[in-house]
Amino acid sequence: MEGGGQFVYHALDPSGNTIRLLTLLPGQFSDKVHLSFTHESFQDEKRTPYECISYTWGEPQTPEKVYIWQKSPANVSNVDSLQFLHPRINLLTALKYIRLADTPRVIWVDAICIDQDNITERSQQVAHMGQIYNYAAQVLVWLGPEDESTSMALETIERLSAGILLTEDHRNCKTIPRSEAEVVERRFNESKFTPQHWKSLNQLIRRPWFERLWIRQEVQLASKVLVRCGYAEIEWGKIEKVIIFVEQKINRVYFRVEDILRCRSLFPYIGSDSLTYTLHRSSFCKCSDHRDMVYANLSTSSEMKALQIKPNYNFTTAKIFKYMTYKYVQHFKNLELFRLCDLKNLPRDFKSFVPNFATQKPDSRLFSVYAHAGTRQSFVDTEGGNVKVKGRKVAKIQGVSTAQKPLVKNTLSHTDIIKTYHQWEPEDLMTCTTYPQGGTLLDAFVMILSNGFCKETYHLSHLPTIQESKESFLAAIWSRADASQIKNSKFKPYLGEVTSDRRSEIFFQTVEGYIGASPTDVQDGDIISVLVGASVPIVLRPVTDHQDAYQVVGPCFLQGVMFGEFLLGPLPDDWLCVRHDYRRWYFRQQGSENRIWEDPRLWPMPSHWQAHFCDFDDSNGPCDGSCELKYEKAAQLINPWFFNTQSKERSEYDPRLDLQGLEAGGIELESFTLV
């Protein structure tokens, strides 16, 4: 037996393919905690079954020791000869609660199973974190000991979840007829749940564990998750049902919006693995090291996985954020991360085109539209670490409202938000009959308030049509409207969109007559651009001492340019651009049920390229190019792909929509140096 003293870690295999597993030796709650370690290889097909603990680090180390058995258990009288560790208080408490009375329990827990003082090992182990949680037989979520509200909170979850069914894509839910959940949804005040039930649930989801950044991959990659609060347990899937139900179905008077958003992001759904969504939701979480905004998400997003980033804690935060931004743009050839840029809150050592992923951002930054018309581009490096991109200038800002819509406050009422809109109203709102790209100023203003969410574009049953939006605005929201009409159920669809408490925008006008809204700090003189590869317009600020150089201010919504009008021109009469279920865009003519992927504004395909709308994976090779472009239902659209008859290259991207293809098609582009 080795001598006592602070535990000295035995180095893991230098290959980085091994982990330490901890065996928690049996004992009663009041007993000292005894552990032993083994090294386990990822290469072994028959790995020792183990559980992972997901918890918060919490308060500093406790003076209480946990004892490490290096070889084999001995008599307790030898405890002074054992090496020891001082775990943090929350972890020590968790070990005591989950320890079995008469059986060893094999677990993995980051604070102890990784030598935290060894930077090389720490970086290697963080790279394997996704595998570690994925291979575990079970992930045990430790929320902490029970308190006076725990029992009621878990009871609330059990009762509600019994009546909730999740939709196939896990984006929404429905309630089972005659269940308690249905009563809550339809007749909230008649349900048997008291305010204390909701307050206890709120207390549970506001425990520190839910704020922790690393928990995302810990639960999302697990094959099974069990939640522990003291000795009480509940299934993770039941919590998922209740969180989605609270988000989608009931008045959130007892919950803070940021808490719901944070919890909701723990549960993946179709479309939620984009890097912009992952990083946006992560910004609501807590971590002691901002570099973990990248490292903690290496396994939570398919787009992040594709970048193949390796943790390196020798990098500064600015360096790793820039490195990831570069990798993303180079790999995916789009500028979607620009939607997360925020010049006002940018640290001094950051380039303006590199988002600070560690700052909270409103949901306005999540909205991907079609301003780029599906185009693609990558960076071109210039001197001094700056980059050059191509696109077109749209307008110059002249006139910014002093009233900004607040971000995520549970006390915010419809009246507060609508008062902001009254301050936004242009003086000529009802008299200006012309607007750039068509329609009236009123038409544009109505769409800006809802960020363009309407049934014609998004094809969702709960959304209002464009005409219904206009009628709702004039009846209930306009400064001269009847305020009592806010309660009219007829106007609920539009009202629900314009009073979202997840968005925080400021209104602006331009020299050219456009109006728009932005979640960032725009100023007079800023330039609105449509950049190739950026799905929304990007606001740029000219650099006074550098010709043709700009800082990225952030994204904006500019009515009249959201569907590629400034790159490809306006859509032909009666044509609509519509969002597909799987976050792509298709086109259809009004009055027709036919849907096509092919943008009607595009020019003919180059002679050596074929566009295909059949199965990309057909082992028989490409067809003769005669496959159908039109389908009766949007859900039947097959993703298009393209075949180069000269090189035999297959691609999922239209060759007309990269920089070379655009310029070959006669599209004139400008260069922007971003600093």
TrEMBL record:
PROSITE patterns: WW_DOMAIN_2 (PS50020). It comes from Cladonia borealis. This is WW domain-containing protein. The lineage of its organism: Eukaryota, Fungi, Dikarya, Ascomycota, Pezizomycotina. Residues 569-602 form the WW domain. It holds the Pfam family Het-6_barrel. It comes from the Eukaryota.
